[in-house]
Amino acid sequence: MAFGGKEQAAIIELMAGKYAQIVPIEAEWGIRLKEGDMRERIEHFHDAVRALTSGEADIYEKHSRLSVEHLAYDLGQLRQIQGKPVGYINRATEKSASTQLVNRGEAGASQSKLPPQRVRSELSALYKDYTVFFAAIFSEIADRNFQSRSDTIDTAVEDIAVIEEVIQQLIAGKISNAQAMDEMMHVERDDLRERLQQMLANKNMSAREKQEALALLGKIDKGLAAEKKALEQSHLHYATGQLAVYEDSKDIVKKLAQQGLNLAGQFVDNALRANQQGKGHSRGV
Predict the structure, then answer these.
(1) Where do the H-state alpha helices sit in the chain?
(2) What are phi and psi of 173, to 5 degrees?
(3) Distance CA 82, CA 124 (A)
(4) Cα torsion for 215, 220, 225, 230, to the nearest 10°?
(5) What's the CA gap between 250 and 254, in Å, rounded?
(6) CA 53, CA 36: separation in Å to the nearest integer?
(7) 4 to each of 9, 108, 130, 219, 283, how far by Cα in Å?
(8) 26 bridge partner residues
């Protein structure tokens, strides 16, 4: 997917600026997203930005870095950081940070390995801005990933209903194997169609095998229902997180306007306001 648009580009540039300020702070203090991580915490979130701008990530895929599940998790973590800016301290680097304080003769260095309040406040402010930009730039991406995958699941469920009906008719002797294979041509999902056609190619397919086919379809149907529910939950998490970020965005939009960055401010406001009003997104990215 190609990345473009003046407004989007302006937001990405602003995010890169916040990223550049956060990296050295987290590097000095060994701040990580999870215990055991080797990279600075901000790197995890900025991976999504890199995936977007590279144009290599498939925003419609389940396992994409830009899937709604990944983005919902990221937004949730970003919101938490503002209240708890330190997070995890990497054990391999926390001693060096503490030693640096001692060498500089800062008071209380020997008692605490945590960054001083000044640093914590700076990190919280930087992440507040970064979170607003993140929520805005990925708003449409999260919606498109969710909608595309929801449609795919719905189509698969419809296909299963068609296949079940065909097999029931086959069991009742109302149609032949050849007729059943013809009916399968209407099934859009390739893996299901090919698998059932392969089974139906056996003209001597037993009643037990036909029942097994129905049982298999039932399992697939149940799995799709669970996948749809989890997908909807992730989309809800992103949407509710974005609504919470919307209040913080108002001050940032004003600040951007004061800096002459009206296009960027307008993009942030439009992206987050559309979510608040429950509207879908139709703009291309």
Answers:
(1) 6-29, 41-54, 68-83, 91-104, 117-137, 139-171, 177-184, 190-200, 207-258, 262-276
(2) 75, 15
(3) 5
(4) 140
(5) 6
(6) 28
(7) 7, 49, 20, 42, 11
(8) none
pLDDT in tens, 114-123: 899 999 999 9
pTM of the model: 0.80
Tokens of 263: 């296009």
d(CA 61, CA 57): 9
Return the ∠ at Cα 129 (arms to 93 and 112), rounded to 5°: 30
pLDDT tens digits, 131-163: 988 988 998 899 999 999 999 999 999 988 988
**Cα(249)–Cα(242) distance, rounded to whole angstroms?**
10
| β-bridge mates for residue 89, sequence order | 31
**Exposed/middle/buried for residue 45 (C-beta within 10 Å: 0-12, 13-18, 19+):** buried
